[in-house]
Amino acid sequence: MSRYVSYRDFDWLLLMFVLIICGLGVTEIHSATMHTKFAGAHIRQLYWIGGGILGMFLVSLLNYQALLDKVHWIYIAAVASLMAVLIFGTKYLGARRWIKIGGNHFQPSEWVKLILILAVAKYFADSRHRELTPSDFVKAGALVGIPMLMVLAQPDLGTALTYVPIAVMGIFLGGLQWRQGLAVVLLAALGIGVVFFTPHVHILKSYQKQRLTSFIEPEADKQGSGYQVIQSLIAVGSGGLWGGTGTQTHLSYLPVPQTDFIFAAFAEEHGFVGALGVLLLYFIVLMRLTQNAQTAPDRAGTFLVMGVVAVLSFHVLVNVGMVVGFMPVTGIPLPLMSYGGSSVLFMFLALGMVMNVRMRRFVN
Amino acid sequence: MFSRDDKVSAIRLTAVQYFILVIFMILAYGLWRLQVMQSDFYAQMAEKNRIRNVPILAPRGKILDRNGTVIVENYPSFSALLLRDSTRDLNADADAIAQGLHLDAKEVRERVRKFTSMPQYQPIFLKDDITQDELAFIESHKNELPELDTIMAHRRLYPRNGFMAHLIGYVGEVTEDMLNQPQFELYNPGDVVGISGVEKQYNQILMGKNGSRRALVNSRGREVGRLDETAAVPGKQLKLTVDVDLQIAAEQALGDRNGAVVAMDPRNGEILAMVSRPTFNPNDFSVRISRNEWSRLVNDDDHPLLNKAIQAQLAPGSTFKIIMATAGMQEGIAQDMHVNCGGGATFYGRYFKCWVVAEHRVHGPVDISKAIYQSCDVFFYTLAEKLGIDRIAKYATMFGLGQKTGIDLPQEVSGVMPSEEWKIRNFKQKWFAGETISVGIGQGAVAVTPIQMARAIGAISSGGLVVRPHVVNPTEFPPNVVPASTVPDQTKVPLDPKGWQIITDAMAGVVNPGGTAPSAHLQGIDFAGKTGSAQTISNALKAKLGAAGKNFKDNGWFVGVEPRRNPEIVVCALLEEGEHGYLAARTVAQVIKAYVDKQNRQPTKIARGSGKAEIGAVWNVSDPDGRDDLKSGHFTITITPKNVPLAAVAPGLE
């Protein structure tokens, strides 16, 4: 089977919008870290983006179908890497998330996301039922659930939660029925209730619970967890319609303005108009991705692209939701804008897979 | 079943697109809510975050004596502040802070707790008047403990060794209780206010208005820029009526003995000196006083914080006989009264001794004059019996005993002047006539303060002019300050001039040979007064206690004036457990001498030879029937510079 693959079919428009978002992110990182010890982070971010773009082209060259055929090996490798983190990982701020390889710190939980997208795509593409059976739930659940529990054990609630939408998206597109959906929602609600309101079940760490409760009532703990929420709200609110001088960011009232709260910093400096513009850019990117999913050559390609859509929209929802006070503080970065190598690389590799699918849409 | 190439449902993909649209609309609404609907609120919050009000402390007004000599001054000192608008955990840092500033970590946490209800931008004052090494500690830990800061403040510098401490008082931080009172509603925690004495009474004048500086701060509480500032308004200086030279004399005259000395100008009520012993060092209070030092002062049996000149309520002893004599003269009883003192007499079936029997002699025949300069108890027992308690109480009350004098110092006490009505009101008992006898010699239920005694005897020597004592002349007040006082400035009790002359002459006899305090005689000075030795417990109780009763020594009193009639100065000395009035007389004599010496060094108004001068005089007027009538009064004379008469020589005893 000869395959005709050309960069003419590369989604240059999507890449353009993605790079605009990255560019805004770099300028905001520059502005937010200007007089802090993180000064110069925007340069490092540029390197990560450059590396990401390179990675994206490399990934797009591989045939995703070939990749899917070997996905069980990759999945096993991913679980093994998470196991390695739990055993050999570097402890930092009370959590074991990083593993040190040749002087560099890696956070495997980010890459696992990518592998889960592949695994879920493979599973549902091979599914031979029009309607989902209970065993589909159990299998897809286990596929995502095992690495998720391992990440929770690090503990890293934020990243673990980002695995959920991959499974949800797969199940929904895989043929979820109304009654099944209702049952899943009820079970999930029950589960959350048990985790939160049973005093003797310590699934969540106390600081994680505190973060969630301080979201509901930030004034109760002004100096502690509530502080970040309040300062973020002040930053966004004081930006007004057109933006301002950004004192919340520049006088460092806003915590970590270059990573988790970059959207708050941007909203403070560029106002409602600027923040809405960024949201619009993300929306365009997501719509473009969904369009690519529709034109994918096969079921697996669609699932693959939609997995990326699920992860990206979940990140935007949770991060921006946190910044505007609709969501608790979970430590989830805003993809493409937030400073950080793992996050940038993940996004570009994920985009590489999307390109991979798109470039092969006329082939078969 | 479908093949590997079957497409995913397009409807579901579209559903996902709509779902994403809904999410983004919710997020956009969130932004709209914060940035458009509530942007003013959050802009204010951001301003509160970054703008800090740093107080600029206003210096308190200086306190001067009547001649403009500075008594209380300020000096620059540094205070350690704790900034609460930083993100540091103050409780966690408390140990390090406490160690560096030599404080107790518990105390630091307690202060942090006390301030929790106050706005974040208000700093906590941790320690005043920090030392050089504490200042260095704060400067060198700017990074580790960014919440620590210093502020320059003007601290009170009081005279050393507790000089004039009771009159001046001291300042301290406004307490939580005070802040709950309406008159302190404009004050903030940490403000320094007067706690006692003049500092408290005239706090409104002395206290300035703090300014503030608005500064741009970052989240670590570090100042990164200045915006604007409101200058502080310094407190106004206050001139007292006290004469520092006389105060020094009074302090030295009392020495280390417990008691009080108060000197007043009976013509207008100006306090010239006021001493109370034991004293305390008010400089210990101008910085926050340590708990130990405070409890030492409060629990001391000698009550060093008490201003005994206005707060000691004690039996006046024989000094009360001047009030008795005046009452007797006014009622027409004492003039022709003659008593034979045989060392005691029996009244209402009980024998009352005269003090003189202790010296194994008797007074013999006694008239009013001798009764005063020899202080004969039997004479005054008899006079008391004849007057009755209510007439005694009437005159004592007219001269201000048993009531507050209205002096412009806080916490004056009233004392007690018993009467029939007083006893029924307070004890639900009828007055026993026998109780009147003890009152006649200033014992029994009578309790007065030294300032009351000075005012009463000063008034009698001045021909009945009762004045309100004060330490600040109302003319010294800045405009718009009108301190309220319910006591009228002056009242006049018309006195029979003849009786007045007899009493004042007899008082001069007290400090001359034949009197009770001849050793207090001042050569060439028209000094007059009355001794008193007041029991602190009754004789009966003393006898019952036996040897232990000896520990209860009498209080020595003396009230002296100069000159004997229409005096310029009245001095009252109280020596607690001073046993004898003549010792108090010597104390007063020292003060009077210092006063006269100072007057002599300065040219008198007459010798200065300009303007008007007022002089008092007594003269005889014959009425048509040929009877002499004694008149008294004041003359105002205008002195021309050329014609300078010599200052009238004080008429001594013939």
Overview of the molecule:
The complex is a heterodimer of chains A (364) and B (654). Chain A is mainly α and 364 residues long. Chain A has one domain (7-69, 157-359). Helices cover 68% and strands 4% of the residues of chain A. Chain A has a 3-stranded antiparallel beta sheet with strand order 1-2-3, with helices on one face. In chain A, strand 1 and strand 2 form a beta hairpin. In chain A, helix 1 (12-33) runs antiparallel to helix 12 (262-294) and helix 5 packs antiparallel against helix 6 (134-152). The N and C termini of chain A lie close together (8 Å). The model of chain A has no long low-confidence stretch (mean pLDDT 84). Chain B is an alpha+beta fold. Chain B has 4 domains: 10-37; 51-239, Alpha-Beta Complex (Penicillin-binding protein 2a (Domain 2)), CATH 3.90.1310; 244-279 and 307-473 and 489-601, Beta-lactamase (3-Layer(aba) Sandwich); 603-654, no CATH class. Chain B has 24 helices and 23 strands. In chain B, the strands form 8 sheets. In chain B, strands 2, 3, 4, 5 and 10 form a 5-stranded mixed beta sheet that branches. A 5-stranded antiparallel beta sheet of chain B has the order 12-11-21-20-19, sandwiched between helices. Chain B has a 3-stranded antiparallel beta sheet with strand order 1-8-9. In chain B, a hairpin with a 5-residue loop joins strand 8 and strand 9. The N and C termini of chain B lie far apart (145 Å).
